[in-house]
Every structure is written in C-alpha cells, then in structure tokens.
Design a protein that fits this description.
The structure holds two protein chains of two kinds. Chain A is an alpha+beta fold. Helix content of chain A is 31%, strand content 32%. In chain A, a hairpin with a 2-residue loop joins strand 14 and strand 15. Chain A is rod-shaped, with a radius of gyration of 40 Å. The two termini of chain A are 51 Å apart. By secondary structure, chain B is α/β, with parallel strands linked by helices. Chain B folds into two domains: 32 residues; 126 residues, Glutaredoxin. In chain B, the strands form two sheets. A five-stranded mixed β-sheet of chain B has the order 5-4-3-6-7. A two-stranded antiparallel sheet of chain B has the order 1-2. In chain B, helix 2 crosses helix 5. The chains are: A alpha+beta, B alpha/beta. Chains A and B meet through helix 2, helix 5, strand 7 and strand 15 of A and helix 1, helix 3 and helix 4 of B.
Chain lengths: 550, 177
C-alpha cells in the first residue's frame, strides 16, 4: 500500500487529509481551504483507502453514508407501509382463504391488493428482514470504518501542530502577549486546568483538551442499536420468545402451550358490566353496556419432575390466580393475559322422556356435552341409550349424521329409548329444532327441557427473555445520544514562537459559543492575542462579495 | 501487503458473520409457521397415554420398533378416510414390529369409543385429554402423522391425508431390521 509521506516525515495512509502527526494538510483540496475539515480529524476513512477486491467493494458500499441514509429511508418507508392496514397478526382468522376474504371484506380492492402483495405480513417478509439486516450491516461497517481510525488518531495526538494546521483552524490567533511575556504557557496551563482541561506540554507548545469522549457518542449509540437489533433477532432462537394463545372453557384442564409441564384449569370466567343508564359518549356511539371487568379465575398445575406429556395423575397445584385485563398471571418468567372470551357455549342439555300421546314424563336426564354417558337409567325398566352424539351436526352423509367440529355449536343425538311400553326400544334422532324418527313412528320422545351454558376464556401466554437485552440496547443507545449531544470535544493548541509571538488555534466539534466563552476567559487571564473566528469572517466576506454582485 | 491481506480477511469474516446472521433470521421467519420445535431426525418427545382399554402406552417402551403416531378427531374427514387404510396396514405390519398409536384430541370417551367401534379400528386409540401431547408434537392441523423409527427418532412428519400406498411406504421406512 502506498503511503503519503508528510514533510515532517510521518507516513500517512492514502486518503489522509491532515497529517496524523503535525497536522499539515496533505491533499490539494485541503491546502486550498481556509479552514480544515476536522470531521474525522482528517483521518483516512478506511473504506476510501482501498477499493480493490470484491470484499472491499462490499465493505465500501456499506460504509458509505449515502447508502446508510438510503437504507434508513427505505426502512422507514417499508415500516410505515406496514401500518396502513392491520397486519395478519392482529386478524383473528387462521386460514389463508379466510385472511384474503377478511382483507377484501374490510378494505375492498385495496385490501385485496395489500394482501396479495404480501404487505399484510410485511414485518416477517424476507425482504423487510433483509432491509433491516442491511441497515445493521451498514451501521456496523460504517462504525468500524470511522470509529477505529478516529480512536487511533485521537489517542496519538501530538502536542505540537504545524503552522499550516493551526492557521486553517476556525479559531486562530497570532501575536505578542499583552503582558507577562514568557509566562504565557504557564498561565494558559493554569487557567485551562481550572476549566477542567487536560493539558499537555512539549517544549514551547501546549495542548489543552477536554471531553474527548464526546466524540465516541455516535459510536456508542450505534453499539446500542446493534444490541437492540440483535435482541430482536434473539427472539427467533428457540426458548427466548414465546407467544401462544389458547381457548379454555370453564371446567376444562389443559396443557399450557409453550409452557412445558404446566396445566391450567378454568375455574370461572367473569364478565362484569356497569349498570348505568347510557349517557354522553356512550349514547352517541350507541353503546348500551360497558364492560367493567373481564376476569378468569384459574388454577395452575405443574407436573412432577420427570413426568411426561399425557401424565396428569400427579399434578401439583402451583397456585390459583385471577387473570384480569392488564393484570396477567405471572409465573417463572411467563405471563398469561386475558385476551378474549366467548359467552354461553352449551354445556349441558336436559331432556324429559315423554309419552307423545299423554304428555306424561317418565323422568329427566341431563347430558354433559363435554362428557356424555352411554346410558342414562331412569328407573328399573326405563333407560335412554345414546347411540350417537354429534357436537356440531352438519347434515347427513349416506344416512350417517356428521359433525363439523368438536365444539357443541349444534348438538345432535341419536337416542334409543327403552320404556316398559316399548322394551325393545325406539330410535329417535334429535337435533335443535328437529326430530326424526327413522325407524318408524315412536310412542315416546325426548322433549327438550333446557340448557346450561359455560363461558370460555381466550388466554395468551408470553415469555420474552429478550427484554433485558432490548433494555440494555436502548440504554446504551440513549447513553450514546446523551454523550454525543451534551458534551463537546474542545481543544486548544498554543505555541510560543522563539521571538515571543504566541500562535494559537482552537477546535470544537459543536457549540462554538461555549468554546469561545472559555477562550475569552483564557485570553483575558493569560493576556493572549485576540482570536479570530475565520468561519465568521469567511461568511462576512461572502456576504460582501454577494453585495458586490448586486 | 501483508497488512492489507489481513484487513481483507477481517472484513471478509465480519461480512460473512453478518450475512449468516441475516440469512438465519430470514430462514427462521420464513419456516417458522411450518416446523417449530419438531424436526425430522430429532428425538421424538416421550409421552404416556392410556388407551380405551385402559392400557398404558409410553412411547419410549416402543424403542427398537417403529411407531406410526396419528393425531385425529371425530370431526376430521380426511382422518376418517385414511383410517381404513391404516387399519389394513396395521394388520400386516404389526407382526413386523411397526405399531400404530392413534391420539385423539381431547374429545369425550363416549365419542371416541363410539367412533372406534363404528370404524372397526383395532389398533390402540388414546385420548389426549389435556392436549399436552398435541402441544409437545406441535400439532396444529389434523390429521398429523409422525413416523418414529426404532431409535426413537422422528423419521418423517406428514400433515394431511395419506393414501394407502403412502402409509405402506412410511411403515416400511420405519420397520426395524
């Protein structure tokens, strides 16, 4: 690799704008400038130093600020497109056909387009992930590319800088001290130390510096961002992130999805409403009843150590919980939220075995729809046998009744009724609002008496081990922002020339006003020559030129 | 020259690591819905269920033999269509060390017994009352068939209906030598 050798003899990597040792401008461009570009202290940005192999080309692509900004904008656009319509995640239908229909029904042609373009599941699309990933690469590469050389350069700063460096700083002064000649550097050191600068001296040169760490702010917040993105990625690893849902009917005991070895029993679901007269907003929006509380009382069970799925004989009660909205069950890092509910699902059905002619009842029977029995004995020679039970009767197929689901939405039975009158039995098909007597006219019927219902709770189980990492990432990010915005890296170079002239230059990465206040203080204290803000004179000159052209 | 080479290698490594991280992220999000924990070649989660005759079935006790594990429900039509074929293949493979274990998803004893009787199923049928085995096997759609080889590892996961030829081929694939 070629080097640029400065007049002072220091070897600088190609691309360096300002000599790392003495501060002489090295490029023609810098030499023409009145004020040096101090953004990265004139270091050679790594990516600009070689551009040869494919790896370097990729590296340089990601290192570019233009590419970085483009990626940020693309990410923002993509992320905001995803918020136009609700994502599939929030749509509570399961199959693709249902989803397509949902978007069409709710949002018309635009919804269909949105769904077909895959925008309804944008955040888990491969291209969005790649976009975020590329942004992460850009942040990492750009930070390495700029941060490391900047760190090196700041660490190896020379006290004495060349005249051409000093002259090209924004704040510059040259002249004889007004008083106490010969003691100037001591006075400057004393004052600067009082203002909490770190002062280094080398012969007749002095350098005072404070808050160098402020230069690391942007790199620290980049580290925070990367930790944050890494934590989001961590969610994909098994065991770090669980987000499962379940329906749990009152009285049911179920294994908790995502929570191995745990079982949950729904003791009761409670829905409370305000019993006020509708008023104000309530009337305007046509809301009759307002919910006060959604609550599921549950008992959490745990299997014994070493028990397998399916073994429920030795369950141990962990505790009972009241799960309410915003007050989840919390156990061992898991949280269980009240998310949804379903009211009044059929639980039991009550029938009376009655004589069709006389209307006399031979007795009643109650069928638990979740656990029907084969036979219900009413007396010595009267009993009812269930031949078939269809919880969600959907019609006949080749004469056989079918069920569409295991849920008792539309229960139907085939009963065989044994009575003293008909000891050989009579067969009856009973569904809601429908009775068939397939084997001929019966003397008895199962007359419907009533139902009991039960409610069900929709629960969501969550565990997120990535939260501490997200938090740490966020904190690092904020720390970086604070460091970068509240502190300014200030430097002052002073040189006492052999003839007693004082030459000084100052630089800060932000807040020149504050820097100048400190400069004023040290100027007064050490009787320094008055400094000039060359950026302001430049501006004024430009203005004048502008005026002339008018 | 040497320094430059080193730098290229460092850069290459950093870029490669980042590419792998992104690749992994994209891959897992795309395949997330299909297979979660359960993978072909992995150890089949052990479980214990009682069949309709009161007999206990523990998967690990079948080690050394093949097991066709079938999750089903009475409302599931494809289940109904494939059962007669499973029954026939069960009869021919049972003596060759391939067993069939059917797991019903949390239905009542009455419904399951009635169904088994009407379908003339003779292989062991169990009911997963609490859905814990279903969760362990990450079953979301029925029918789901898991083929477990003699080492207790998952040989194949089939979601949806199988033809009789497929059933025979699957059972052949888990036949112990």
């Amino acid at each position: 690799m070629e080097k640029i050798i400065c007049e002072c003899g220091h070897e600088n990597p190609v691309g360096t704008k300002i000599c790392g040792r003495c501060g002489r401008p090295l490029t023609e461009e810098e030499k023409q400038k009145k004020i040096l570009d101090m953004r990265y202290d004139g270091i050679a940005i790594r990516s600009k130093t070689h551009n040869k192999s494919i790896i370097d080309k990729i590296w340089n692509f990601f290192s570019s600020v233009k590419v970085g900004i483009t990626l940020i904008i693309l990410n923002l656009i993509a992320a905001s497109i995803g918020t136009i319509l609700p994502q599939e995640f929030y749509v509570s239908v399961s199959t693709d056909a249902e989803k397509a229909k949902y978007y069409e029904d709710m949002y018309g042609a635009f919804g269909t387009l949105y769904y077909n373009l895959g925008l309804s599941d944008l955040y888990s699309s491969w291209w969005f992930q790649i976009l975020v990933g590329m942004l992460a690469v850009s942040i990492i590469v750009a930070s390495i590319d700029r941060g490391l050389p900047l760190h090196k350069s700041l660490k190896n700063q020379r006290v004495k800088r060349h005249q051409s460096f000093m002259k090209r700083q924004r704040v510059f002064a040259e002249g004889a001290p007004a008083a106490e000649q010969g003691k100037t550097l001591d006075l400057v050191e004393q004052k600067m130390k009082a203002m909490k600068y770190k002062v280094r001296r080398e012969g007749n040169a002095l350098m005072a510096e404070k808050n160098r760490f402020a230069r690391y702010g942007p790199y620290i917040n980049h580290v925070g961002l990367i930790v944050f993105l890494g934590a989001v990625m961590l969610r994909l690893l098994p065991g770090f992130y669980i987000d499962e849902s379940m329906w749990l009917r009152e009285g049911e005991l179920r294994a908790v999805p995502g929570m191995e070895g745990y079982f949950i029993h729904n003791d009761e679901f409670i829905l409370e409403t305000y019993d006020n007269e509708p008023q104000g907003e309530q009337l305007k929006q046509g809301v009759n009843v307002m919910a006060k509380n959604y609550q599921t009382n549950v008992t959490l069970y745990k299997q014994q150590e070493g028990d397998l799925p399916g073994q429920t004989d030795n369950l141990e009660v962990v505790d009972t919980f009241e799960i309410k909205v915003n007050s989840p069950l919390k156990h061992e890092g898991y949280a269980m939220y009240q998310m949804d509910y379903g009211l009044n699902e059929l639980k039991t059905m009550k029938f009376a075995l009655t004589n069709k002619a006389s209307g006399d009842s031979l007795g009643e029977l109650t069928i638990d729809l979740a656990n029907p029995e084969t036979e219900y004995v009413l007396s010595d020679n009267t009993r009812v046998e269930i031949v078939s039970y269809l919880p969600d009767f959907s019609g006949f197929e080749e004469g056989v009744p079918q069920t569409a689901s295991p849920t008792p939405n539309n229960p139907a039975f085939i009963f065989r009724m044994y009575t003293p009158e008909k000891p050989e039995g009579e067969t009856s098909f009973v569904a809601i609002q429908q009775t068939l007597e397939p084997l001929g006219e019966n003397a008895y019927k199962m007359s419907f008496q009533g139902v009991e219902t039960r409610n069900m709770s929709g629960l969501t189980i969550r565990k997120d081990k990535t939260i501490p990492f997200l938090f740490i990432g966020g904190m690092i990010f904020m720390l970086g922002v604070a460091i970068g915005s509240y502190w300014a890296h200030r430097r002052l170079w002073v040189e006492e020339l052999p003839d007693g002239t004082i030459r000084l230059a100052a630089h800060t990465n932000k807040n020149w006003f504050g820097m100048k206040k400190e400069l004023d203080a040290v100027t007064a204290f050490a009787h320094l020559p008055a400094y000039v803000d060359q950026a302001e004179t430049e501006k004024e000159e430009n203005k004048k030129e502008g005026d002339n052209t008018l | 020259m040497d320094k430059k080479k080193k730098r290229s290698i460092t850069r290459g490594i950093i870029l490669a690591l980042l590419a792998v991280a992104i690749g992994y992220t994209v891959y897992t999000t795309i395949t997330k819905d299909k297979v979660d924990v359960l993978k072909v070649g992995a150890e089949a989660p052990d479980f214990e269920l009682v069949d309709l005759n009161g007999e206990m079935h523990r998967l690990s006790e079948y080690k050394g033999q093949g097991v066709l594990l079938n999750f089903w429900g009475t409302w599931c039509e494809p289940c109904k269509r494939e059962f007669p074929a499973i029954e026939r293949q069960y009869k021919s493979f049972e003596t060759q060390g391939v067993h069939v274990l059917a797991v019903n998803i949390a239905q009542s004893d009455f419904e399951v017994k009635n169904y088994v009787k009407s379908m003339n199923m003779t292989f062991p049928v169990t009911i997963d009352k609490t859905k814990s085995v279903m969760n362990a096997y990450n079953v979301t759609n029925l029918p789901a068939t898991i083929l477990i080889n003699k080492e207790g590892k998952i040989e194949k996961i089939v979601t949806g209906e199988m033809t009789e030829a497929q059933i025979a081929a699957h059972m052949e694939s888990i036949k112990p030598e």
